[in-house]
Amino acid sequence: GKQLNYKEVNDLILNKKIDLIISDGYMINYDYNIRRNAADLNIPIILNGKLAKEISIAFKENYISFYENKEYGGGI
User: What does the domain layout of the chain look like in residue ranges?
Assistant: First the structure.
């Protein structure tokens, strides 16, 4: 796939086209701004590479799925 630049990623975040952020913190300033925008828009962020790998495997194998917050009973 195509590697996106910082502006393209931030545009996708700000337009709510991204549902999950995975960041290893390798590029501190770049990653901070992406994480900050994601947090401001309540987009989940995974900061651990091993956790990200396990979650991606679980999604691929259909072991887990997303639910709207209201389905958990809090109506958040």
Answer: 6-72
d(CA 47, CA 32): 11
What residues does 22 pair with on adjacent strands?
Answer: 46
Quote the pTM value.
0.69
CA dihedral 48, 36, 18, 71 (to 10 degrees): 80
- Helix, strand and coil percent figures for the chain, each rounded to 5: 50, 5, 45
- Quick one: CA torsion of 8, 36, 44, 4, rounded to 10 degrees? 20
Q: pLDDT tens, 8-33?
A: 999 999 999 999 998 876 777 778 88
Contacts of 25 (CB under 8 A, 6+ apart): 31, 47
Instruction: Report CA dihedral (1, 11, 25, 44) to the nearest 10 degrees.
Output: -100
